[in-house]
Amino acid sequence: MRLFAAGIPDPTSASVLGMPLWLWVLIGGVALFGAFQAYYWIGRKLGPRLYSSRVGRKISPEGIRRVEKAVSKWGALAVYGCFWVPGLRHTLPWVAGVLRISYPWYAVASALGCLTWVPVTSFGLYSVIWGWLKLAAESPLLAGAGLAAVILVIACLVGVRRRRTARRHTENELTTT
């Protein structure tokens, strides 16, 4: 009788470019934590000047106000939650620095965010890539169709978001004039 575990590959044997996957995840987590600390301290140093800087213009005043409301309402919990929201992940730390939220709480929340978000996305992304490569080896046509569907969905989401943003800007211009 063969053991059930005998058919499951050893998770520590996975590697990317010869380095074990767990080491990539560890390096990614440390790098993201470092980036979050840099964002916070740059935002803290710039203070309100962040809003008129190139980064502030890219984020947009309306986006900054929404992030400020989230940080004011949720504090360090917003820092943890921002890991799971694309776009907010790299906006909130700047604003948290400007608002000067408690750094010890910020550091704890960003460390917890890195400890949970990085492994989930790394192993999830790893699984998706290898699953797609296995599908491509077995059925290139189906893999191509799947990739085309994903590209189409992303293009539609980007289009909807751009139209929504343009509509918001138009409404803001109408109300201010």
Would you summarize the structure shown here?
With 177 residues, this protein is an all-alpha fold. Helix content is 75%, strand content 2%. The protein has helices spanning 21-46, 54-59, 61-74, 76-81, 92-98, 103-138, 140-176, and strands spanning 15-16, 19-20.
Structure overview:
- This protein is mainly α.
- Helices cover 75% and strands 2% of the residues.
- It has seven helices and two strands; from the N terminus they run ββααααααα.
- The chain has helices at residues 21-46, 54-59, 61-74, 76-81, 92-98, 103-138, 140-176, and strands at residues 15-16, 19-20.
- It has a two-stranded antiparallel ribbon with strand order 1-2.
- A hairpin with a 2-residue loop joins strand 1 and strand 2 (19-20).
- The radius of gyration is 21 Å and the shape is flat.
- 18% of the residues are buried.
Can you tag this structure with a few keywords?
single chain, 177 residues, two-stranded antiparallel ribbon, 2 strands, 75% helix, flat
**Largest sheet, order of strands side by side?**
1-2
Uncertain ranges: 1-6
β-strand percent reads under 5%
Number of helix segments?
Answer: 7
Task: Set down the secondary structure blueprint.
Blueprint: E1 15-16, E2 19-20, H1 21-46, H2 54-59, H3 61-74, H4 76-81, H5 92-98, H6 103-138, H7 140-176
Helix pairs in contact: 1-5, 1-6, 6-7
